[in-house]
Amino acid sequence: MVVAFSYLAFTVLAPWQLGKDARIVERNDRIEHAYEVAPVDVSTLLDDGALSDDEQWTRVTMTGQFRVADEVLVRMRSVNGMPSYQSLVPFDTDSGATVLINRGFVPAKADEPVPAIAAAPAERVTITGLAQVGEAADGRAPLDADGYRQIYTLTPELVTELTGTELVDGYVQLAEGAPGALSPIPVPKLDRGSHLSYGLQWLAFGIMAPLGLAYFAYSEVKERRRLRDEDTELAADHGDVAPAAAEVAADSSDADHPAEAPRSAVAQPSAPQSSASRRRSRSVRDRYGDAKRDHYAKLAQRRQER
């Protein structure tokens, strides 16, 4: 499990967070650069008929006319934590391309019809906005409700299917104050978030896991060796128990046969209790208290009484 966790930490979890951080940094750099330079004509970005990932967040300008009758709503999108409807209208540019324009949003309320949305201007206008990449469709079918055609994802291909208008791949998010703009979609905050620290944490966890395993394995081996050494010392102490038992039996024999020589004349001095026995005795008392008899302490008491 430790090996599997470390492998995932290095190959999946850390790259996931570090990759998000790298993408956010790149996005922030593009947004900062977009507002440092003048907007470019959208036609310069449409050499391949699409707004690519590398061109996202570029400020663009275009002159042309809205197709007011082809308005489509993106339903129940979250803006600033609140549900909203976003208005999408195709825009015929003077260069000949038709670009989908996100005019902004109007707040939405659950179980209530779509609020009144101001129509886009019908006359020829010049607008400015941010180039964006379209979203992938989520499989939910469009619907007609409250007098609007509505979709669930900001996907130019779906608008093309609903309106019959051939659109470039991608769309433009209309800037605040531009003709036809509603409440503007807020530009992301230029904040990296915590993804970098999360990525470094996963790397640290991937290193710490095998080190922790090695430490616990070392501690377990050390503890087993200590217990083995104690058991060896205790086994050696059993040689003291047998003579002591013989002495007890001799004392009993002296009491039955007083004519024999006194036991004290032939008794050998008892060996002191070993340090291992004392350690084990203390361990037994610490673990079990008085609930478990301590035979070594009892034997030592008998020796002292003699």
Automatic annotation (TrEMBL):
Protein name: SURF1-like protein
Protein family per UniProt: Belongs to the SURF1 family.
Annotated keywords: Cell membrane, Membrane, Transmembrane, Transmembrane helix
InterPro entries attached to this UniProt entry: Surf1/Shy1 (IPR002994), Surf1/Surf4 (IPR045214)
Entries under PANTHER family matching the protein: SURFEIT LOCUS PROTEIN, SURFEIT LOCUS PROTEIN 1
Species, as recorded: Corynebacterium uterequi
Residue ranges, compositional bias (Basic and acidic residues): 229-240, 283-306
Segments crossing the lipid bilayer: 198-218
Main localization of the protein described in the UniProt heading: membrane
Compositional bias annotation for Low complexity: 241-252, 261-276
Localization per Swiss-Prot or TrEMBL: Cell membrane; Membrane
Residue span of region Disordered: 229-306
Top-level taxon in the UniProt lineage: Bacteria
Gene Ontology CC terms, in alphabetical order: plasma membrane
Topology with respect to the bilayer: Multi-pass membrane protein
